[in-house]
Amino acid sequence: MIASMTKYSFILLNGEQIDLLEKLQEIGLVDITRSTKPIDDTSQKLAGEVDLLDGLIQGLNNAVIPEGVTPEFIDGDIVRLAGGQIMRYSEDSVQIKVLEREVHHLKAWGKFDKAALDELVEAGVHLHFHVVPKKQYKPEWEQQYALSVISIGKNTVRFVVVGEDPLPGEVPAPECSVEEKQKELAEKEKHFQKTLGRIASAKDRIPELEQLRVKALEKLDLYLAGVTANTAAEETIVTLVGYAPTENEEEVTKALDQIGVLYLKEEAQAQDNPPITFRNNWFVRQFEVLTDMYGRPAYDGFDPTPFISTFFLLFFALCMGDAGYGLILIGAGLLLKKVPSFKDMAPLVVILGVGTVIVGFFLHTFFSIDIAQWKVFEPIKGLFLPDEIAGYAGGMVLAIVVGIIHLCLAMLVKAIQAVKVKGFYASLGTLGWTLLIVGGVVVGALALAGVLDAAITKWIVIVLGIVSAIGIFPLNNPDRNKFANIGLGLWDTYNTVTGLLGDVLSYLRLYALGLAGSMLGMAFNNMGKMVLGDGSNPAFWLFFILLVVIGHTLNIAMCALGAFVHPLRLNFLEFFKNSGYEAAGRSYNPLKKQ
What we know:
Layout lengths: L4 E9 L3 H11 L3 E2 L8 H22 L15 H32 L4 H9 L4 E7 L7 H4 L1 E7 L3 E7 L7 E2 L6 H26 L2 H21 L3 E3 L4 E9 L3 H11 L2 E6 L14 H4 L2 H7 L10 H16 L2 H14 L9 H17 L2 E2 L2 E2 L17 E2 L2 E2 H29 L5 H21 L5 H19 L9 H25 L1 H25 L5 H42 L15
Helix pairs in contact: 1-7, 1-8, 2-3, 2-7, 3-6, 11-13, 11-18, 11-19, 12-13, 14-15, 14-17, 14-18, 14-19, 15-16, 18-19
């Protein structure tokens, strides 16, 4: 749910704002509306400092230090020293690769005396060096020209021609002998070893760079907050506006009273565009990252995360559709906890794995094996999804039913929000469609279940149609002419009917993806059985295990990709469209110490 916010308006003398902002930074709860990007030369410079420190940290982390390198201690300004050593490391690395290629090139020409070659050139003897593909070289050239083959490689032939030379593939003469170039390479490698020692020492001081980066970020954040201040009374007075969660009001008020600043506080309103922060339980909180991928809601909107947490989990599990794959995901999530960069995502992966195990069991599939055929599950076979429902594939019917429930819930949310924001009378059009579609689905479900007989169902449908039509047509917009409303109601009817049909059919992808993954897994299982044969040859067991493990690993990777993208689409497009969700808010970002 969206946490309520309190608005704080600060009034102080010009020049006192920086001191106040520093104290708010200490509190760490007040969000001062500010830009997240540089807005002038000063902030550009501060952002440049952050980028420089990011680059130095990344450069030191990326530098590869071979075993056995002894760190060479360097003292002084770590920023200047690290920057210089990273530059030398980069330059030396490139130059060593260039010298290695040059040595390899010169080795192909063999040993020669460069001074003697220069003397021949000065004496008027013209030497021409050539490199041609083997297919182009003609042995008869050796009889026609003063030609000497130097080396024959895998694909090329190197030769030298003295005097007349109309032959192809001429290249510049070597500038030095291979011995000279090897000596230059050895000197550069020796210098590089010293650079590696200094880089190893600089790596030990990465925490210093990280602390400098934190301070630079705090300074940039403080400056961006300060430039938002408004001046008044001939620039002698400054006003600032900030927001903090209402649940922290007592803590913030106590801190502000100790500071001694003049401030006003009031309940934040939607027109103030306060920042958005969520107050959800642990389970729902794991899915907030998905909401942020689309955008946070407006202050008077609704938090879609509780709906995403339930339906994304269900859709993901249906797309994976295999209890065995769910166990693999649980294991992967537990391993991710040990990786610092992925630690925050580990609980979500485990949750998705648990959901996949439960739904996979319901679909009676374990590594693409139908466990409904196992005798151990015979007593609870009734819990499994039937292969057919009313003559259709059980998975297909399940996907459609889940889709209808998802869309109906979206419409209910839209109707509730419309009444909350616009009022009842202004929301009659939305309420009419919600009553017609959601009410019709509920009545139809009760009729199919035998709860309502045909006569009662008929009259309920008629009443629903009449009441809904009043809201859909003449009263869909109280500010418009009734006849105009009828015309627009007809247009809305066309769009709604055709749109809903397409939206419902979109949920068939849940069945299709689950079926495709299951069929591909079965194919790998069958291929493994073919390789194994009767199991009498132990070597075939090795090939069987390798084939099945590699096959299912590839299948899990492909299924997981589809199971992430398509459920996200069903939530972001079908649900958000039918619920009227708009990502018009901004994230709560309080001034605080990093």
